[in-house]
């Protein structure tokens, strides 16, 4: 008896299997990640030796066509996968988005996972949730469990491709993050990193002002580890934040 959690982003599908009744923060029994171009081989490769899960809950921001392709890979299991649709309220968190269903499912699930993570640590203040994937999102959760809103900015790859495509002199190798970059490679790498960390620090300040207390800052996503060293407020990298959120949503639904 197991639970399969799936997180489909715009670059990769991440999955994790948990024992029945696992709580947010638990270690998965098995986990993996595949680029979207390889999802049609999940049944034959990554999931080939997997015991059929009892239930599947996913978050998907890559569109309906991708979701259907993933569902095809589960057809040999006797179950109906479920997908999170952001709602006005779930697992004790209220959704402050103007149109709750238009919020990215990954953002909603990560906010829910972040609250579970903070509570487990005995922290009852606000939380700032940063996901560094294809895009970057910086989302604010109040101490009283209201998702206040958050921002979306391009990830490093998209920023670089936009600059390469829109100019003639910016096609250079990856550089280093430097305080005062003195070559094009370092200028681009530092620009991308500071755009992200600057947005994080600004939201951190805004949330601190609003809540009268410093938030817990949680970072996740495939490129979170690259950005985290440049963030100059206390933070924690939580690799499985979306999986924790999926476990919390599943538990709340019963
Ligand atoms: N081993 C890796 N494989 C793929 N992407 C990686 C890897 N390490 C870091 N990254 C970075 O992470 C980003 C993808 O992160 P991910 O969380 O999978 O995104 P998404 O949720 O949007 O699919 C890529 O843009 C890339 O910059
Ligand atoms: C912002 C996102 C593109 C992030 O996607 P990702 O980087 O995880 O692939 C995704 O959460 C999304 O499509 N959101 C819908 C729009 C919104 O949240 O307002
Ligand atoms: K993501």
Automatic annotation (TrEMBL):
Coiled coil: none
Keywords: ATP-binding, Coenzyme A biosynthesis, Cytoplasm, Kinase, Nucleotide-binding, Potassium, Transferase
Catalytic activity entry: (R)-pantothenate + ATP = (R)-4'-phosphopantothenate + ADP + H(+)
Residue sites binding ATP per the record: 7-14, 134
Pfam families according to UniProt: Pan_kinase
Binding site for substrate: 97, 104-107, 184
Keyword Zinc: no
Pathway: Cofactor biosynthesis; coenzyme A biosynthesis; CoA from (R)-pantothenate: step 1/5
Co-factor binding comment: A monovalent cation. Ammonium or potassium.
Broad enzyme group: transferase
Gene Ontology molecular functions: pantothenate kinase activity
EC number: 2.7.1.33
Location in or out of the cell: Cytoplasm
Cofactor: K(+); NH4(+)
Active site: 106
Homology family: Belongs to the type III pantothenate kinase family.
Function comment: Catalyzes the phosphorylation of pantothenate (Pan), the first step in CoA biosynthesis.
Subunit text: Homodimer.
Name the record gives this protein: Type III pantothenate kinase
Source species: Pelomonas dachongensis
């Amino acid at each position: 008896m197991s639970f399969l959690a799936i997180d489909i982003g715009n670059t990769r599908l991440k999955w994790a299997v948990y024992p029945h009744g696992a709580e947010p923060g638990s270690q998965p029994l098995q986990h993996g990640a595949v680029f979207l171009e390889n999802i049609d081989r999940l049944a034959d490769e990554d999931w080939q030796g997997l015991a059929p899960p009892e239930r599947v809950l996913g978050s998907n921001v890559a569109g309906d066509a991708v979701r259907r392709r993933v569902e095809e890979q589960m057809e040999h299991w006797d179950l109906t996968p479920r997908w999170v649709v952001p709602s006005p309220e779930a697992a004790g968190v209220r959704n402050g988005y103007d149109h709750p269903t238009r919020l990215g499912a990954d953002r909603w699930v990560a906010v829910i996972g972040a609250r579970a993570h903070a509570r487990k640590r005995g922290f009852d203040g606000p939380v700032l949730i940063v996901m560094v994937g294809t895009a970057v999102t910086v989302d604010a959760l109040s101490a009283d469990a209201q998702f206040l809103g958050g921002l979306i900015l391009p990830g490093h790859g998209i920023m670089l491709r936009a600059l390469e495509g829109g100019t003639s002199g910016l096609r250079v190798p990856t550089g280093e993050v430097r305080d005062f970059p003195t070559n094009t490679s370092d200028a681009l790498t530092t620009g991308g990193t500071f755009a992200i960390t600057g947005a994080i620090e600004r939201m951190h300040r805004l949330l601190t002002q609003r809540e009268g207390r410093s938030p817990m800052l949680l970072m996740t996503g495939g490129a979170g580890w690259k950005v985290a060293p440049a963030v100059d407020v206390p933070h924690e990298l939580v690799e499985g934040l979306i999986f924790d959120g999926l476990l919390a949503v599943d538990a709340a639904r019963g």
